[in-house]
Automatic annotation (TrEMBL):
<dbReference type="GO" id="GO:0006047">
    <property type="term" value="P:UDP-N-acetylglucosamine metabolic process"/>
</dbReference>
<feature type="active site" description="For Fru-6P isomerization activity">
    <location>
        <position position="361"/>
    </location>
</feature>
<feature type="domain" description="SIS">
    <location>
        <begin position="42"/>
        <end position="182"/>
    </location>
</feature>
<comment type="subunit">
    <text>Homodimer.</text>
</comment>
<dbReference type="GO" id="GO:0004360">
    <property type="term" value="F:glutamine-fructose-6-phosphate transaminase (isomerizing) activity"/>
</dbReference>
<dbReference type="GO" id="GO:0097367">
    <property type="term" value="F:carbohydrate derivative binding"/>
</dbReference>
<keyword id="KW-0808">Transferase</keyword>
<protein>
    <recommendedName>
        <fullName>Glutamine--fructose-6-phosphate aminotransferase [isomerizing]</fullName>
        <ecNumber>2.6.1.16</ecNumber>
    </recommendedName>
</protein>
<keyword id="KW-0032">Aminotransferase</keyword>
<dbReference type="GO" id="GO:0005975">
    <property type="term" value="P:carbohydrate metabolic process"/>
</dbReference>
<dbReference type="GO" id="GO:0046349">
    <property type="term" value="P:amino sugar biosynthetic process"/>
</dbReference>
<dbReference type="GO" id="GO:0005829">
    <property type="term" value="C:cytosol"/>
</dbReference>
<comment type="function">
    <text>Catalyzes the first step in hexosamine metabolism, converting fructose-6P into glucosamine-6P using glutamine as a nitrogen source.</text>
</comment>
<dbReference type="GO" id="GO:0006487">
    <property type="term" value="P:protein N-linked glycosylation"/>
</dbReference>
<keyword id="KW-0315">Glutamine amidotransferase</keyword>
<feature type="domain" description="SIS">
    <location>
        <begin position="215"/>
        <end position="356"/>
    </location>
</feature>
<dbReference type="GO" id="GO:0006002">
    <property type="term" value="P:fructose 6-phosphate metabolic process"/>
</dbReference>
Amino acid sequence: DKGQYRHYMQKEIFEQPVAIMNTLDGRIKDGRVNIDAIAPNAAEILSKVEHVQIVACGTSYNAGMVARYWFEAIAGVSCDVEIASEFRYRKFVTRPNSLLITLSQSGETADTLAALRLAKESGYMSAMTICNVASSSLVRESDFAFMTRAGVEIGVASTKAFTTQLTCMLLLNAAIGRLKGNLTDEQEHHIIQSLQRLPAQIESALVFDKQIEKLSEDFAEKHHTLFLGRGEYYPIAMESALKLKEISYIHAEAYAAGELKHGPLALIDSEMPVVVVAPENDLLEKVKSNIEEVRARGGQLYVFADSDAGFTDADNFKTIVLPKVDEVTAPIFYTVPLQLLSYHIALIKGTDVDQPRNLAKAVTVE
Ligand code: M6R
Protein backbone atom coordinates (compact mmCIF):
# COMPACT_ATOMS: atom_id res chain seq x y z
CA ASP A 1 0.00 0.00 0.00
CA LYS A 2 1.43 3.35 -1.05
CA GLY A 3 -0.44 5.24 1.69
CA GLN A 4 0.06 8.99 1.29
CA TYR A 5 2.63 8.56 -1.49
CA ARG A 6 2.22 8.69 -5.26
CA HIS A 7 4.71 5.96 -5.98
CA TYR A 8 6.43 3.14 -4.14
CA MET A 9 9.76 4.73 -5.01
CA GLN A 10 8.73 7.93 -3.25
CA LYS A 11 7.48 5.97 -0.25
CA GLU A 12 10.71 3.99 -0.11
CA ILE A 13 12.84 7.13 -0.30
CA PHE A 14 10.93 8.60 2.63
CA GLU A 15 11.14 5.34 4.60
CA GLN A 16 14.93 5.51 4.74
CA PRO A 17 15.27 7.02 8.24
CA VAL A 18 13.18 4.17 9.68
CA ALA A 19 14.85 1.56 7.49
CA ILE A 20 18.29 2.63 8.75
CA MET A 21 17.06 2.63 12.34
CA ASN A 22 15.87 -0.95 11.85
CA THR A 23 19.20 -1.92 10.32
CA LEU A 24 21.00 -0.58 13.41
CA ASP A 25 18.61 -2.13 15.91
CA GLY A 26 20.37 -4.59 18.23
CA ARG A 27 23.64 -4.26 16.30
CA ILE A 28 25.10 -1.66 18.64
CA LYS A 29 26.10 -2.34 22.24
CA ASP A 30 27.74 0.13 24.61
CA GLY A 31 28.65 2.47 21.79
CA ARG A 32 30.37 -0.28 19.79
CA VAL A 33 29.34 -2.77 17.13
CA ASN A 34 27.68 -5.84 18.56
CA ILE A 35 29.71 -8.29 16.50
CA ASP A 36 27.74 -11.32 17.71
CA ALA A 37 24.65 -9.75 16.18
CA ILE A 38 26.24 -9.90 12.72
CA ALA A 39 26.36 -13.70 13.06
CA PRO A 40 27.15 -16.07 15.96
CA ASN A 41 30.55 -17.06 14.52
CA ALA A 42 31.33 -13.75 12.83
CA ALA A 43 34.12 -12.62 15.17
CA GLU A 44 36.21 -15.71 14.51
CA ILE A 45 36.00 -15.32 10.75
CA LEU A 46 36.23 -11.53 10.59
CA SER A 47 39.37 -11.41 12.73
CA LYS A 48 41.18 -13.50 10.09
CA VAL A 49 40.13 -11.47 7.06
CA GLU A 50 43.04 -10.11 5.02
CA HIS A 51 41.18 -9.27 1.84
CA VAL A 52 37.60 -8.61 0.81
CA GLN A 53 36.13 -9.42 -2.60
CA ILE A 54 32.74 -7.81 -3.19
CA VAL A 55 30.54 -9.09 -6.01
CA ALA A 56 27.19 -7.56 -7.00
CA CYS A 57 25.12 -6.00 -9.81
CA GLY A 58 23.54 -2.60 -10.44
CA THR A 59 22.82 -0.49 -7.39
CA SER A 60 24.24 -3.18 -5.11
CA TYR A 61 27.49 -2.97 -7.08
CA ASN A 62 27.54 0.79 -6.50
CA ALA A 63 27.16 0.16 -2.76
CA GLY A 64 30.14 -2.17 -3.00
CA MET A 65 32.14 0.57 -4.70
CA VAL A 66 31.45 2.94 -1.79
CA ALA A 67 32.34 0.21 0.71
CA ARG A 68 35.72 -0.35 -0.98
CA TYR A 69 36.84 3.09 0.21
CA TRP A 70 35.78 2.13 3.74
CA PHE A 71 37.48 -1.29 3.80
CA GLU A 72 40.83 0.24 2.98
CA ALA A 73 40.39 3.39 5.13
CA ILE A 74 38.49 2.03 8.16
CA ALA A 75 38.91 -1.75 8.42
CA GLY A 76 42.44 -1.64 7.01
CA VAL A 77 42.00 -4.58 4.62
CA SER A 78 42.43 -4.55 0.86
CA CYS A 79 39.22 -4.77 -1.13
CA ASP A 80 38.19 -5.42 -4.71
CA VAL A 81 34.72 -4.96 -6.16
CA GLU A 82 33.47 -6.60 -9.33
CA ILE A 83 30.28 -6.79 -11.32
CA ALA A 84 28.98 -10.36 -10.90
CA SER A 85 28.57 -11.08 -14.61
CA GLU A 86 32.26 -10.26 -15.13
CA PHE A 87 33.57 -12.05 -12.06
CA ARG A 88 31.82 -15.30 -12.91
CA TYR A 89 33.24 -15.56 -16.42
CA ARG A 90 36.89 -14.80 -15.90
CA LYS A 91 39.83 -16.62 -14.39
CA PHE A 92 40.65 -15.08 -11.04
CA VAL A 93 43.22 -15.61 -8.33
CA THR A 94 41.83 -16.09 -4.83
CA ARG A 95 43.89 -14.22 -2.26
CA PRO A 96 44.73 -15.81 1.10
CA ASN A 97 42.11 -15.29 3.82
CA SER A 98 39.79 -13.55 1.43
CA LEU A 99 36.19 -12.95 2.43
CA LEU A 100 33.67 -12.96 -0.39
CA ILE A 101 30.78 -10.56 0.13
CA THR A 102 27.78 -10.61 -2.15
CA LEU A 103 25.48 -7.60 -1.97
CA SER A 104 21.89 -7.93 -3.11
CA GLN A 105 18.46 -6.57 -2.34
CA SER A 106 16.57 -9.58 -3.69
CA GLY A 107 19.07 -12.34 -2.99
CA GLU A 108 18.00 -13.88 -6.30
CA THR A 109 20.12 -12.06 -8.89
CA ALA A 110 21.29 -14.87 -11.19
CA ASP A 111 24.82 -13.57 -11.83
CA THR A 112 25.47 -12.79 -8.16
CA LEU A 113 24.26 -16.24 -7.14
CA ALA A 114 26.44 -17.89 -9.79
CA ALA A 115 29.42 -15.86 -8.54
CA LEU A 116 28.78 -17.08 -4.99
CA ARG A 117 28.61 -20.71 -6.13
CA LEU A 118 31.84 -20.31 -8.06
CA ALA A 119 33.60 -18.63 -5.15
CA LYS A 120 32.64 -21.48 -2.82
CA GLU A 121 34.64 -23.83 -5.05
CA SER A 122 37.54 -21.41 -5.38
CA GLY A 123 39.16 -21.29 -1.97
CA TYR A 124 37.53 -18.26 -0.38
CA MET A 125 37.84 -18.32 3.40
CA SER A 126 34.14 -17.58 3.84
CA ALA A 127 31.16 -16.23 1.90
CA MET A 128 28.97 -13.60 3.44
CA THR A 129 25.92 -11.93 1.95
CA ILE A 130 24.46 -8.54 2.76
CA CYS A 131 20.91 -9.05 1.65
CA ASN A 132 17.35 -7.84 2.16
CA VAL A 133 15.35 -11.04 1.73
CA ALA A 134 15.79 -13.65 4.46
CA SER A 135 14.26 -16.50 2.47
CA SER A 136 16.42 -15.89 -0.62
CA SER A 137 18.88 -18.19 -2.36
CA LEU A 138 21.88 -15.99 -1.50
CA VAL A 139 21.05 -16.11 2.21
CA ARG A 140 20.52 -19.89 2.09
CA GLU A 141 23.73 -20.60 0.22
CA SER A 142 26.12 -18.21 1.99
CA ASP A 143 28.13 -19.10 5.09
CA PHE A 144 26.53 -16.19 6.87
CA ALA A 145 24.10 -13.37 6.15
CA PHE A 146 23.98 -9.82 7.43
CA MET A 147 20.41 -8.70 6.78
CA THR A 148 19.73 -5.13 5.67
CA ARG A 149 16.17 -5.00 7.11
CA ALA A 150 15.07 -2.31 4.65
CA GLY A 151 11.59 -3.84 4.54
CA VAL A 152 9.95 -4.87 1.28
CA GLU A 153 11.23 -2.81 -1.64
CA ILE A 154 8.72 -2.70 -4.50
CA GLY A 155 9.98 0.07 -6.78
CA VAL A 156 12.26 -1.35 -9.46
CA ALA A 157 14.65 1.51 -8.73
CA SER A 158 16.48 0.50 -5.59
CA THR A 159 16.65 3.18 -2.88
CA LYS A 160 16.34 2.06 0.73
CA ALA A 161 18.14 -1.20 -0.07
CA PHE A 162 21.20 0.84 -1.08
CA THR A 163 21.33 3.05 2.01
CA THR A 164 20.79 0.10 4.36
CA GLN A 165 23.49 -1.91 2.56
CA LEU A 166 25.86 0.97 3.24
CA THR A 167 24.73 1.05 6.88
CA CYS A 168 25.58 -2.67 7.20
CA MET A 169 28.91 -2.03 5.49
CA LEU A 170 29.89 0.63 8.03
CA LEU A 171 29.00 -1.69 10.93
CA LEU A 172 31.02 -4.45 9.29
CA ASN A 173 33.99 -2.13 8.78
CA ALA A 174 33.91 -1.05 12.40
CA ALA A 175 33.84 -4.73 13.43
CA ILE A 176 36.74 -5.79 11.20
CA GLY A 177 38.72 -2.66 12.07
CA ARG A 178 38.42 -3.43 15.78
CA LEU A 179 39.10 -7.17 15.46
CA LYS A 180 42.22 -6.53 13.41
CA GLY A 181 43.45 -3.76 15.70
CA ASN A 182 43.23 -1.15 12.96
CA LEU A 183 40.67 1.04 14.69
CA THR A 184 40.89 2.76 18.08
CA ASP A 185 37.94 2.64 20.51
CA GLU A 186 37.48 6.32 19.89
CA GLN A 187 37.29 5.83 16.12
CA GLU A 188 34.79 3.01 16.56
CA HIS A 189 32.63 5.14 18.88
CA HIS A 190 32.69 7.92 16.33
CA ILE A 191 31.44 5.66 13.51
CA ILE A 192 28.68 4.32 15.73
CA GLN A 193 27.59 7.78 16.88
CA SER A 194 27.53 8.99 13.29
CA LEU A 195 25.32 6.05 12.33
CA GLN A 196 22.99 6.76 15.23
CA ARG A 197 22.63 10.38 14.12
CA LEU A 198 22.03 9.42 10.49
CA PRO A 199 18.26 8.72 10.54
CA ALA A 200 17.49 12.22 11.87
CA GLN A 201 19.94 13.76 9.41
CA ILE A 202 18.24 11.98 6.52
CA GLU A 203 14.92 13.40 7.76
CA SER A 204 16.51 16.82 7.43
CA ALA A 205 17.59 16.04 3.85
CA LEU A 206 14.04 14.97 2.92
CA VAL A 207 12.89 18.47 3.82
CA PHE A 208 14.69 19.65 0.65
CA ASP A 209 12.13 17.79 -1.46
CA LYS A 210 10.37 20.93 -2.73
CA GLN A 211 13.61 22.72 -3.53
CA ILE A 212 14.87 19.67 -5.44
CA GLU A 213 11.55 19.40 -7.27
CA LYS A 214 12.07 22.97 -8.49
CA LEU A 215 15.59 22.15 -9.63
CA SER A 216 14.37 19.10 -11.54
CA GLU A 217 12.52 21.31 -14.04
CA ASP A 218 15.85 22.23 -15.61
CA PHE A 219 16.57 18.59 -16.51
CA ALA A 220 13.34 17.41 -18.07
CA GLU A 221 14.17 18.68 -21.58
CA LYS A 222 17.77 17.53 -21.51
CA HIS A 223 19.09 14.43 -23.27
CA HIS A 224 22.18 13.88 -21.17
CA THR A 225 23.43 14.52 -17.64
CA LEU A 226 26.87 14.14 -16.14
CA PHE A 227 27.38 13.31 -12.44
CA LEU A 228 30.72 14.02 -10.80
CA GLY A 229 32.28 13.16 -7.46
CA ARG A 230 35.59 12.23 -5.91
CA GLY A 231 36.43 9.57 -3.33
CA GLU A 232 33.30 7.88 -1.95
CA TYR A 233 31.23 10.42 -3.87
CA TYR A 234 32.37 8.95 -7.18
CA PRO A 235 30.27 5.81 -6.59
CA ILE A 236 27.50 8.03 -5.20
CA ALA A 237 27.62 9.82 -8.57
CA MET A 238 27.48 6.41 -10.29
CA GLU A 239 24.41 5.47 -8.28
CA SER A 240 22.74 8.80 -9.07
CA ALA A 241 23.41 8.37 -12.78
CA LEU A 242 21.97 4.84 -12.69
CA LYS A 243 18.85 6.09 -10.92
CA LEU A 244 18.33 8.89 -13.42
CA LYS A 245 18.73 6.76 -16.55
CA GLU A 246 16.62 3.96 -15.14
CA ILE A 247 13.53 5.99 -14.29
CA SER A 248 13.68 9.07 -16.52
CA TYR A 249 15.32 7.51 -19.62
CA ILE A 250 17.71 10.45 -19.76
CA HIS A 251 21.21 9.30 -20.62
CA ALA A 252 23.34 9.85 -17.56
CA GLU A 253 26.97 9.10 -16.88
CA ALA A 254 29.13 9.36 -13.81
CA TYR A 255 32.77 10.28 -13.79
CA ALA A 256 35.40 10.60 -11.12
CA ALA A 257 35.77 14.37 -11.23
CA GLY A 258 39.52 14.10 -11.79
CA GLU A 259 38.87 12.33 -15.10
CA LEU A 260 37.19 15.34 -16.74
CA LYS A 261 40.29 16.37 -18.69
CA HIS A 262 40.73 12.83 -19.95
CA GLY A 263 37.70 12.97 -22.21
CA PRO A 264 34.33 14.04 -20.84
CA LEU A 265 35.20 17.74 -20.84
CA ALA A 266 34.65 17.59 -24.61
CA LEU A 267 30.94 16.99 -23.93
CA ILE A 268 30.44 20.18 -21.95
CA ASP A 269 28.28 22.92 -23.45
CA SER A 270 25.21 24.86 -22.33
CA GLU A 271 23.02 21.82 -23.05
CA MET A 272 24.88 19.60 -20.60
CA PRO A 273 23.74 19.70 -16.99
CA VAL A 274 26.51 18.64 -14.64
CA VAL A 275 25.59 17.49 -11.14
CA VAL A 276 28.43 17.62 -8.62
CA VAL A 277 28.45 16.11 -5.14
CA ALA A 278 30.73 18.41 -3.20
CA PRO A 279 30.53 18.34 0.60
CA GLU A 280 33.26 20.00 2.61
CA ASN A 281 36.13 17.51 3.05
CA ASP A 282 39.80 17.03 2.14
CA LEU A 283 38.98 16.72 -1.54
CA LEU A 284 36.78 19.82 -1.79
CA GLU A 285 39.50 22.07 -3.23
CA LYS A 286 40.13 19.50 -5.96
CA VAL A 287 36.41 19.28 -6.70
CA LYS A 288 36.23 23.08 -6.85
CA SER A 289 38.87 23.15 -9.61
CA ASN A 290 36.84 20.55 -11.51
CA ILE A 291 33.76 22.75 -11.11
CA GLU A 292 35.74 25.65 -12.59
CA GLU A 293 36.73 23.48 -15.56
CA VAL A 294 33.03 22.90 -16.29
CA ARG A 295 32.03 26.51 -15.65
CA ALA A 296 34.70 27.84 -18.03
CA ARG A 297 33.12 25.77 -20.85
CA GLY A 298 29.61 27.03 -20.25
CA GLY A 299 28.29 23.89 -18.51
CA GLN A 300 25.19 24.17 -16.32
CA LEU A 301 26.22 23.28 -12.79
CA TYR A 302 24.06 21.78 -10.04
CA VAL A 303 26.07 21.43 -6.88
CA PHE A 304 24.95 19.38 -3.87
CA ALA A 305 27.04 20.58 -0.95
CA ASP A 306 26.92 21.56 2.72
CA SER A 307 27.00 24.97 4.34
CA ASP A 308 30.75 24.66 5.04
CA ALA A 309 31.63 24.16 1.38
CA GLY A 310 31.01 27.82 0.63
CA PHE A 311 28.96 27.66 -2.60
CA THR A 312 26.27 30.17 -3.56
CA ASP A 313 23.97 30.39 -6.58
CA ALA A 314 25.24 32.29 -9.63
CA ASP A 315 24.67 32.29 -13.39
CA ASN A 316 24.49 28.70 -14.65
CA PHE A 317 25.28 27.59 -11.13
CA LYS A 318 22.62 26.27 -8.78
CA THR A 319 23.24 24.84 -5.36
CA ILE A 320 21.42 22.67 -2.88
CA VAL A 321 23.01 23.54 0.44
CA LEU A 322 22.42 20.70 2.88
CA PRO A 323 23.24 20.59 6.58
CA LYS A 324 26.78 19.56 7.51
CA VAL A 325 26.90 15.90 8.62
CA ASP A 326 29.61 13.53 9.87
CA GLU A 327 32.08 12.72 7.13
CA VAL A 328 31.91 8.95 7.56
CA THR A 329 28.15 8.70 6.96
CA ALA A 330 27.91 11.60 4.52
CA PRO A 331 27.94 9.38 1.38
CA ILE A 332 24.74 7.71 2.66
CA PHE A 333 23.22 11.10 3.45
CA TYR A 334 23.98 12.60 -0.01
CA THR A 335 22.37 9.64 -1.75
CA VAL A 336 18.92 10.76 -0.60
CA PRO A 337 18.63 14.23 -2.21
CA LEU A 338 20.00 12.73 -5.42
CA GLN A 339 17.32 10.01 -5.36
CA LEU A 340 14.76 12.80 -5.03
CA LEU A 341 16.27 14.59 -8.02
CA SER A 342 15.83 11.54 -10.27
CA TYR A 343 12.36 10.95 -8.91
CA HIS A 344 11.18 14.47 -9.69
CA ILE A 345 12.76 14.50 -13.16
CA ALA A 346 10.95 11.24 -13.95
CA LEU A 347 7.66 12.70 -12.67
CA ILE A 348 7.94 15.61 -15.09
CA LYS A 349 8.78 13.22 -17.92
CA GLY A 350 5.74 11.13 -17.03
CA THR A 351 7.52 7.78 -17.05
CA ASP A 352 6.37 4.76 -15.09
CA VAL A 353 8.54 5.43 -12.04
CA ASP A 354 7.88 2.17 -10.20
CA GLN A 355 8.02 -0.04 -13.25
CA PRO A 356 10.44 1.44 -15.81
CA ARG A 357 10.24 -0.02 -19.31
CA ASN A 358 12.26 -3.16 -20.05
CA LEU A 359 13.31 -3.75 -16.44
CA ALA A 360 12.46 -6.32 -13.76
CA LYS A 361 12.84 -5.96 -10.01
CA ALA A 362 14.81 -9.16 -9.63
CA VAL A 363 17.01 -10.30 -12.49
CA THR A 364 16.77 -14.05 -12.00
CA VAL A 365 18.03 -14.97 -15.46
CA GLU A 366 21.34 -13.80 -16.86
O1 M6R B 1 18.47 -7.57 -6.02
P1 M6R B 1 19.82 -7.05 -6.36
O2 M6R B 1 20.30 -6.00 -5.41
O3 M6R B 1 20.84 -8.15 -6.53
O4 M6R B 1 19.65 -6.36 -7.76
C1 M6R B 1 20.74 -5.85 -8.48
C2 M6R B 1 20.28 -4.97 -9.59
O5 M6R B 1 19.49 -5.67 -10.51
C3 M6R B 1 19.50 -3.76 -9.09
O6 M6R B 1 20.20 -3.04 -8.12
C4 M6R B 1 19.15 -2.80 -10.25
O7 M6R B 1 20.32 -2.24 -10.76
C5 M6R B 1 18.17 -1.74 -9.76
N1 M6R B 1 17.01 -1.71 -10.62
C6 M6R B 1 18.78 -0.37 -9.69
O8 M6R B 1 17.88 0.58 -9.21
